[in-house]
Amino acid sequence: IRIAALGAEDRKDSIVNNSKLAALILMRLARREDIANLLIEQPTWMEKDLPDFFSTFQLFLVVYGHKTLRRKLVSDPEFLIFLNILVSNAGAAKRKQKIQLLEMCLKIFRHMNDPVTPDPQQTQRTFSCTEEFLEDLSDSNFVSNFIETAAEVRDDEEEDATYQIILLLDTIGSNYVTPQLMPYLKNLNDYIQQDINFDYALTAATHLAKHKEYAQKFKDMELHKYIKKKYQKQSPEYEKIRRRINTFLNTLKKVLPKKQ
Question: How far is residue 259 CA from its own chain's centroid?
Fold first, then answer.
C-alpha cells in the first residue's frame, strides 16, 4: 500500500511538473502575436489555474504585452474576472506581496487602453474606456473589491495601500462620473482630514471635483469647511500647500452654483 501511495504521489508530481512545463511552452509561444491572438479569442484560460494562478498571471502578462492586441484583450468579459482573481490573490497574500500584486493590478488597469503609438505631443496620459466597460466594471465589483482589499493593509505598508486606492479613484473619476465611486469619496475626505497621503488625496479630490456630482459630494461632506478651518492663511502649514488648497477650493466654486 505504501509503495502504491508513493507511486500515486510520483504521478501527481509528474502531472504538476508537466503542467508547468506546458505553461512555460505556452508562454513562449504567446510571444508571437498570432498565438496571443488565438488565446484572446478563446479567453476562458484567464479564469483557470495553469496549473496555478501565478502561471496564468505570467501568461496573461505575455499576452497583455502585445499593445496591438491589448484593446481586444480587455474587451473580453474574462478580463475583469481575471483582475478580480488577481485582487483575491492579493487579499490572501502577505502584506508586502499584497501591495505588489495590487500595484501590478492597478498598472494593468490604468494602461489597458494605451495607444499603440504614443503621441509625443501628449505629455500627460489619460485613462479612457467605453460606457459599456464602465457598466461591466460596476457589475464586476472590481472597484469595491480592490479598495476593500487595499484597506485591510495596516502599519508600515498602510500609506502604500492608501496610495493605490487614491490612484484608482483618480484614474477613473478624473475622466468619468460613475455611481460606483460615490461611496469611496469618503475615503479621500478621510485621508485629507487624517493627513494620510495628503498631497495625493487632495490632488485626486481636485481632479474629481471638476465633475459636478463629485463636487457636490465633497461639499456635502463639508470638506471645504474643514480645509478652510484647518489651514488658515496665517498658519505655517498653509504656506507649504497654499496652491493645492486654493486649486481645490476654486474648483468647487467654479463647478457648483453660488446658491449652493
Answer: 36
| Helix (H/G/I), strand (E/B), else coil: 259 | coil
Distance CA 217, CA 215 (A): 5
DSSP, res 43:
G
Count of Cβ atoms closer than 10 Å to residue 13 Cβ: 10
Distance CA 200, CA 202 (A): 6
Task: Indicate the residue type of 57.
Answer: F
User: What is the reported pLDDT for 137?
Assistant: 96
82 near 140, Cβ under 8 Å?
Answer: no
Q: Cell 456630482 appears where? A: 213
> Which are the contacts of 148, defined by CB distance < 8 A and separation ≥ 6?
none
Chain segment 149-159, per-residue pLDDT in tens: 999 887 667 88
d(CA 119, CA 206): 26
Question: What is residue 232's three-state secondary structure?
Answer: coil
The three grid cell numbers given for residue 197, joined into one nine-digit string: 497621503
Give the pTM. 0.87
DSSP 102-147: HHHHHHHHHTTT--SS--TT--S------HHHHHHHHHHTHHHHHH
Q: How far is CA 150 from CA 88, 187, 194, in A?
A: 11, 12, 17
pLDDT digits (tens, 9 = 90+) for 52-98: 999 999 999 999 999 999 999 999 999 999 999 999 999 998 878 89
Give the closest residue to 147 by CA, choosing from 171, 111, 175: 171
Residue 149 to residue 156: CA distance in whole angstroms: 16
CA distance 7 to 17: 15
